[in-house]
Amino acid sequence: MSRQTRKKLMLSVMALAIIASGGAILQFTSIGNAVAQGAGAEMPPMPVPVVSIAEKPVQIWKEFSGRLMAVDYVEIKPQVSGIIQDVTFEDGQIVNKGDVLFKIDPRPYEAAVALARAEVAGAQDSANLAKKELARAEELLKSGAISKQGYDERVNSQKLNDSLIAGASAHLKSAQIDLDHATIRAPISGRISRPEITVGNLVKAESAPLLTTIVSDKDIYADFEVDEQTYLNFIRVKTGQNVEAEKSIPVRLSLPDDDKHYEGAIKSFDNKINPSTGTIRARAIFANADNALLPGMFARVQIGSVGEENMITVPEKAILTDQSRKFVYVSENNVVAYREVKLGDTVNNERVVLSGLNPGDKVITGNLVYKIHPGAKVQPMSEQEMEAMTAQMAKQQQEPAAGEAAPEENSAKDKPKEIPFDEPEKEKTQEQKPAQE
Fold it and tell me: Which of 353, 346, 354 is nearest to 63 (CA)?
């Protein structure tokens, strides 16, 4: 390598080093200025979602745990003894009142009915003969051809035969009832259980084994317990002791993990408070048109106030707990303030506020209530505005800013320019040649 080439290479390296160090110094200076400005600047107010408090008509609902009970429930048992000849239903079938369920061997009872009819016929014939003899005795008594005693005997015979007819008729009726009981029918309409005893088994009326059960499926009861304070302050105050007014109390029922509500009516309240539990038994009735409610199910029963009252409510998510106290954060002139509140009943994921808030207060809601403190400056926004701002920020993070160059372009821009040292060096070399000569 020639001397001139080595000199040219050295000058290029020095120039690149100077440019690189100058850029680093300039960049470090810019970062330092930004940090200094950020340290002295005041933090901007935090955007927070708020809800403006106002009075509105509210219907209070009280919730209780209850059990569903069938309106009608029947245990089917045999009333006569005999061999079961037929079972005419399927497990879980819907049956109507009067449908045949079981058939017991009727032959012994048919024979008993035939015997009783014969007894009635014999008693009737004897009674007819006694009646004729009494008529003849009356004619003979007029002519003195029969004594008074003979006449009285015929009168007594007539009465005795009438009694025999009555006894034979009763026996026939009893035999007919037994024959009817040999065919077991559904006493109510509803859903039937499985047969507990099948064809060919002997049943006895004395032991009366359970054959099956039927529960009504059109309506259903919900039995639940109401605590004494709720009964006195929520029900008695509104309805007094008027039974008809109690039936006007709105009632609704729902099953666990099911949002569907069934509307019903109060059937009755018990006549006493249970001293051991401090509750009173209550019963409501609900229509069960879709047969989705089954006896024995656990259910949530809610009873509502008779009318609506204007009250202040606050969302559940805005309520915080400080040991035994409940409080919320409100925005007063864009500054966070602490407000202790006294809460009432729950209404549609909101709590009734009995004291601590006034109409027009701006209550801070959402997860940000855990990140602020009294005295902090905030920027109140509606929940819709907060959602829109959050969505906009997420969109800006995903898309590159307008006018921002691609990474390849930025790297090309940041690359330092090469200084053309060849021309000046060439001229300087030409000027030095004459002197050397």
Answer: 346
pLDDT at 30: 37
Higher pLDDT, 208 or 427: 208
CB hemisphere CA count around 89 (13 angstroms): 27
pLDDT band for position 78 (cuts 50, 70, 90): very high
Task: Find out if CATH 3.40.190.10 is the number for domain 48-55+311-394.
Answer: no
Taking the CB of residue 326, how many other CB atoms lie within 10 A of it?
18
Q: What would the DSSP string read from start to end of 74-133?
A: EEE--SS-EEEEEE---TT-EE-TT-EEEEE--HHHHHHHHHHHHHHHHHHHHHHHHHHH
DSSP H or E segment with residue 247: helix 243-247
Task: Provide the pLDDT for residue 86.
Answer: 96
CATH of the domain spanning 106-181? 1.10.287.470
Largest CA distance in the chain: 204
Sole residue written with tokens 């307008």: 402
Q: Report d(CA 395, CA 170) in Å as an integer.
A: 94
